[in-house]
Amino acid sequence: VAGTGKEPFFRDLFAGKFPYRPRTVARRLADRERVRIGKTEAVPVVAPGHTPGHLCLYFPSEGILFLADYDLTAFGPWYGDKTGGIEEFRRSARMLAEIGASVNVVSHEAPVHEGSIAAKVEAYLSVIDRREESLREFLRRPRTGKDIVERRIVYGEGRPGAWFDYGEWALMEKHLERMVARGEVVVEKDRYALISS
Which of 141, 143, 187 is nearest to 168 (CA)? Predict the structure, then answer.
């Protein structure tokens, strides 16, 4: 957001809503390390993609997997962190489904999913493809980043403001990076355009 004029909004938002304070790391957890919490055993499962250090917790005795921000919502995945990514997100989501927990708990909306989540994970991941196809259609004419943000492919119409602008661009930028790398989109004079085939 630097240089956008929205710095005061985000400074106030993060200072008020997410009051950051440096913290001392008490202990680092390794992927699949078994950890005792009283009488309960938990297994941390490293699941990057949402954010690089995203961690889920599996409770094997109870058959419960806490998916955290792999939330299986109809809205779809968030992979907009600067160091996160779409392919990492897909790999992690599918790996989590393979654990085969009997109960899966998420952080947003419908919190509990019983039984296999394999089909739910695939439906959830299909949102990524729908977003990219919508972006592909939109780029049939050259578009600026501002045009793409205002199109609201991710959030839909009626969601104005700096927060949604940020979220929209964070996700769309991931798609643009992939499309440019594949030679599907070209960037000229700050405009993105689909390459005709």
Answer: 143
Burial class (CB in 10 A: 0-12, 13-18, 19+), 180: middle
Q: Which helix (H) or strand (E) holds 189?
A: none
The string of pLDDT tens digits covering residues 5-15 is 777 877 787 77
d(CA 52, CA 49): 6
Q: For 40-87, write each residue's pLDDT tens digit.
A: 999 999 999 998 889 999 999 999 999 999 999 999 999 998 888 899
Quote the radius of gyration of the chain (alpha carbons, Å): 19
Overall size of the chain counted in residues: 197
Predicted TM-score (pTM) above 0.85: yes
Domains of the chain (ranges; CATH) run 31-128 (3.60.15.10)
Rounded distance, CA 49 to CA 41, Å? Answer: 25
